[in-house]
Write a structure and sequence with these properties.
The chain has 428 residues and is mostly beta strands. Helices cover 13% and strands 34% of the residues. The chain contains six helices and 31 strands. The strands form six sheets. Strands 1, 2, 4, 6, 8, 10, 11, 13, 14, 16 and 17 form an eleven-stranded parallel beta sheet that branches. Strands 3-5-7-9-12-15-18 form a seven-stranded parallel beta sheet, covered by helices on one side. Strand 26 and strand 27 form a beta hairpin.
């Protein structure tokens, strides 16, 4: 370790004294900053940060994660997160190579909204989560689409696995993708990759789709459509937020009035206890129905585009599993996003674990999440910590807002569901 130095970042000025071309022994970060392309043995983070393209040979240790933090495109020995729940926070560990394990310790999330994404990393060890009873109601943990390298009997270990969202993690075995079946994390969601249909098309066919960098603040001129109000030839929908959200989005994108009941006519209906809410809208949309998930709304929008000869101009993409901050880059580019969250305000925004119904369908348990709700993101403000929404539950055309950390927490609990409608490019 001869010749290596320790550095501490307490202010913007401190960044000027760090030589990016040399290897740092210990880097201590106590200031909100962006780091790109640093090389160190250990990194100790005590502030919200964005870290890109760094090499951390031994350990990245994050203590008391606060506000928004992003670790992306790095090579890291191990990741340790301590003191989760001291602050409202959004922590994203994405697109990294982890040579050992990721460990989460010291949960205390009462009365704080905490969201953690472990997304599309290559992990050579395990993910270990020591969550406790204090973390169950306010911490949403998502472990999605990670590649695990070493064959093992355990890939993800948690003290309370029933409250952690684990989807689409995989191994590569002789060049074949094999998705991991982790029964201890079964949450009866009914989720299946097959329901997402063209979810990968955005990245395969439109990988260079022009998105603006996320600005600090953005709000689009989108009019809300109330689901509970009856207009001429457009009766109220008691449980039709999904159809209404589709109408809001298409009305804005196509610059024409599309009613909520028009969208109902394109939506497949199903029966409670017989059909999956990923395949059909369940129940009576005009009275006491339940609802549906993103795949049903995608099919309804596709049906609308085809019926109106618009399939050559627009296409719909199920972007479920995409983290919220990535969706905001589309909003920043002028594109609203349909999402799933929960109804109401702070007093009655509940997690899916407070849900109301479990169905047994063809031998599979399906858990309907309580207070499930579909809305449209039309803006955000990092300055004020707000997300701006066209909310069908509101009885006017006005836009409403929610705390961004609370919203992301509930959005993640509702399987991180989202939908985009994009213009097709014309080729010469």
């Amino acid at each position: 370790m001869y010749g290596l130095f320790d550095y501490t970042i307490n202010s913007r000025e401190d960044l000027k004294y760090i030589n990016k071309d040399s290897k740092i022994r210990n880097l201590y970060i106590n200031y909100n900053c962006k780091l790109d392309g640093y090389y160190c043995c250990n990194m100790y983070v005590n502030s919200n940060v964005e870290i890109f393209n760094c090499i951390i040979e031994e350990s990245l240790i994050i203590t008391n994660p606060n506000k928004f933090s992003l670790i992306r495109n790095c090579m890291i020995g191990e990741v340790v997160i301590e003191g989760i729940g001291a602050f409202n926070s959004s922590l994203h560990i994405e697109h990294n190579i982890i040579y050992d394990s990721i460990r989460f310790n010291s949960f205390n999330c009462l009365n704080k909204d905490v969201t953690i994404y472990i997304y599309q990393n290559e992990i050579n060890g395990i993910v270990k989560i020591d969550n406790n009873v204090n973390s169950l109601s306010d911490c949403a943990i998502c472990i999605i689409a990670n590649r695990f390298v070493e064959k093992s009997t355990k890939y993800i270990i948690a003290a309370h696995p029933e409250f952690i969202d684990v989807r689409d993690n995989y191994l590569i075995d002789e060049y074949e993708i094999k998705f991991l079946k982790l029964n201890e994390f079964e949450n009866y969601s009914g989720y299946d990759r097959r329901y997402l249909g063209n979810s990968l098309s955005l990245f395969v066919h439109e990988n260079n789709y022009r998105r603006k960098q996320v600005t600090p603040n953005k709000i689009l001129k989108v009019k809300n459509i109330p689901q509970y109000i009856s207009n001429e030839n457009d009766p109220a929908l008691k449980t039709g937020c999904e159809a209404t959200a589709c109408a809001i989005l298409l009305s804005h994108i196509l610059n024409k009035r599309i009613t909520k009941n028009e969208m109902v006519s394109y939506m497949k209906m199903g029966e409670p206890g017989k059909d999956s809410f990923w395949d059909s809208f369940i129940g009576d949309i005009y009275n006491d129905g339940w609802g549906c998930m993103s795949s049903v709304s995608v099919n309804a929008i596709n049906n609308y585009l085809k019926s109106n000869n618009l399939q050559d101009k627009y296409y719909v993409v199920n972007t479920t599993n995409m983290p919220l901050y990535e969706l905001l880059s589309f909003v920043s580019s002028g594109i609203p996003v349909i999402v799933w969250c929960t109804m109401g305000n702070k007093e009655h925004m509940y997690h899916k674990k407070h849900g109301s119904t479990i169905w047994d369908i063809n031998g599979e348990k399906l858990y309907w999440p309580g207070n499930d709700h579909s809305l449209v993101i039309v803006g955000y403000s990092f300055t004020y910590g707000k997300i701006y929404l066209a909310d069908p539950e509101e009885n006017s055309e006005k836009i409403t807002d929610r705390d961004i950390y609370e919203f992301e927490n509930r959005f993640t609990e509702l399987y991180s569901q989202s939908i985009l409608v994009l213009k097709k490019r014309t080729t010469r």
